[in-house]
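Researcher: Re-running this chain for the archive, since the previous output was lost when a drive failed. Same request as before.
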Amino acid sequence: MEEIYSTDLEQITEEINKTQENQTSEILSTKLELLQIFYMCYTLYKENENPDILKNLIKITELLKKCKILENYTEENEEPSKRILEDLNKKRFKKQKGNNPRKKYKEKSEKLGEKCKKKFDGNIK
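Model: Regenerated C-alpha coordinates:
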Protein backbone atom coordinates (compact mmCIF):
# COMPACT_ATOMS: atom_id res chain seq x y z
CA MET A 1 0.00 0.00 0.00
CA GLU A 2 2.82 2.39 0.86
CA GLU A 3 4.55 1.61 -2.41
CA ILE A 4 1.48 2.60 -4.39
CA TYR A 5 1.28 5.92 -2.57
CA SER A 6 4.96 6.58 -3.00
CA THR A 7 4.86 5.93 -6.76
CA ASP A 8 1.70 8.00 -7.11
CA LEU A 9 3.31 10.87 -5.23
CA GLU A 10 6.40 10.68 -7.39
CA GLN A 11 4.32 10.73 -10.57
CA ILE A 12 2.23 13.62 -9.29
CA THR A 13 5.31 15.65 -8.35
CA GLU A 14 6.87 14.93 -11.74
CA GLU A 15 3.72 16.12 -13.52
CA ILE A 16 3.57 19.22 -11.35
CA ASN A 17 7.20 20.00 -12.11
CA LYS A 18 6.62 19.53 -15.84
CA THR A 19 3.59 21.82 -15.87
CA GLN A 20 5.45 24.44 -13.84
CA GLU A 21 8.38 24.31 -16.24
CA ASN A 22 6.01 24.69 -19.19
CA GLN A 23 4.28 27.63 -17.54
CA THR A 24 7.54 29.36 -16.70
CA SER A 25 8.83 28.86 -20.23
CA GLU A 26 5.60 30.33 -21.64
CA ILE A 27 5.80 33.26 -19.25
CA LEU A 28 9.41 33.90 -20.15
CA SER A 29 8.65 33.76 -23.87
CA THR A 30 5.79 36.27 -23.50
CA LYS A 31 8.02 38.55 -21.44
CA LEU A 32 10.63 38.37 -24.15
CA GLU A 33 8.07 39.22 -26.83
CA LEU A 34 6.83 42.19 -24.80
CA LEU A 35 10.36 43.47 -24.34
CA GLN A 36 10.96 43.11 -28.09
CA ILE A 37 7.85 45.19 -28.80
CA PHE A 38 9.05 47.77 -26.29
CA TYR A 39 12.45 47.92 -28.00
CA MET A 40 10.84 48.30 -31.44
CA CYS A 41 8.72 51.21 -30.21
CA TYR A 42 11.77 52.79 -28.62
CA THR A 43 13.80 52.57 -31.83
CA LEU A 44 10.86 54.00 -33.81
CA TYR A 45 10.67 56.93 -31.42
CA LYS A 46 14.42 57.53 -31.64
CA GLU A 47 14.25 57.57 -35.45
CA ASN A 48 11.14 59.74 -35.83
CA GLU A 49 10.71 61.52 -32.47
CA ASN A 50 6.96 61.40 -32.96
CA PRO A 51 4.99 62.51 -29.85
CA ASP A 52 2.30 59.88 -30.48
CA ILE A 53 4.91 57.13 -30.41
CA LEU A 54 6.27 58.62 -27.18
CA LYS A 55 2.83 58.47 -25.55
CA ASN A 56 2.45 54.82 -26.52
CA LEU A 57 5.98 54.08 -25.36
CA ILE A 58 5.25 55.57 -21.95
CA LYS A 59 2.03 53.54 -21.73
CA ILE A 60 3.95 50.36 -22.57
CA THR A 61 6.58 51.09 -19.92
CA GLU A 62 3.89 51.66 -17.31
CA LEU A 63 2.25 48.35 -18.20
CA LEU A 64 5.57 46.54 -18.11
CA LYS A 65 6.24 48.02 -14.68
CA LYS A 66 2.84 46.88 -13.44
CA CYS A 67 3.56 43.37 -14.67
CA LYS A 68 6.95 43.61 -12.94
CA ILE A 69 8.74 42.85 -16.19
CA LEU A 70 10.67 46.10 -16.00
CA GLU A 71 12.12 47.28 -12.74
CA ASN A 72 10.17 49.87 -10.83
CA TYR A 73 12.01 53.13 -10.75
CA THR A 74 11.69 55.84 -8.15
CA GLU A 75 9.28 58.71 -8.61
CA GLU A 76 12.18 60.96 -9.60
CA ASN A 77 12.71 58.88 -12.73
CA GLU A 78 8.99 58.78 -13.54
CA GLU A 79 8.52 62.54 -13.27
CA PRO A 80 10.49 63.43 -16.42
CA SER A 81 8.24 61.23 -18.55
CA LYS A 82 5.19 63.02 -17.16
CA ARG A 83 6.82 66.39 -17.75
CA ILE A 84 7.72 65.43 -21.31
CA LEU A 85 4.09 64.51 -22.01
CA GLU A 86 2.84 67.74 -20.46
CA ASP A 87 5.33 69.79 -22.48
CA LEU A 88 4.29 68.04 -25.69
CA ASN A 89 0.63 68.71 -24.95
CA LYS A 90 1.37 72.37 -24.20
CA LYS A 91 3.35 72.78 -27.43
CA ARG A 92 0.64 71.08 -29.44
CA PHE A 93 -2.03 73.31 -27.85
CA LYS A 94 -0.01 76.45 -28.54
CA LYS A 95 0.51 75.46 -32.17
CA GLN A 96 -3.19 74.78 -32.65
CA LYS A 97 -4.21 78.00 -30.96
CA GLY A 98 -1.71 80.16 -32.81
CA ASN A 99 -0.45 81.67 -29.58
CA ASN A 100 2.70 83.71 -30.11
CA PRO A 101 3.80 85.56 -26.95
CA ARG A 102 6.52 87.57 -28.75
CA LYS A 103 4.01 88.94 -31.21
CA LYS A 104 1.61 89.87 -28.37
CA TYR A 105 4.40 91.65 -26.48
CA LYS A 106 5.44 93.54 -29.61
CA GLU A 107 1.85 94.64 -30.25
CA LYS A 108 1.43 95.81 -26.65
CA SER A 109 4.68 97.78 -26.76
CA GLU A 110 3.66 99.41 -30.05
CA LYS A 111 0.28 100.42 -28.61
CA LEU A 112 1.95 101.90 -25.53
CA GLY A 113 4.40 103.75 -27.75
CA GLU A 114 1.55 105.26 -29.77
CA LYS A 115 -0.20 106.40 -26.58
CA CYS A 116 2.99 108.00 -25.30
CA LYS A 117 3.54 109.82 -28.60
CA LYS A 118 0.02 111.24 -28.49
CA LYS A 119 0.41 112.51 -24.91
CA PHE A 120 3.88 113.99 -25.42
CA ASP A 121 3.82 117.17 -27.45
CA GLY A 122 7.60 117.59 -27.58
CA ASN A 123 7.93 120.48 -25.13
CA ILE A 124 9.80 119.87 -21.91
CA LYS A 125 8.92 122.25 -19.09
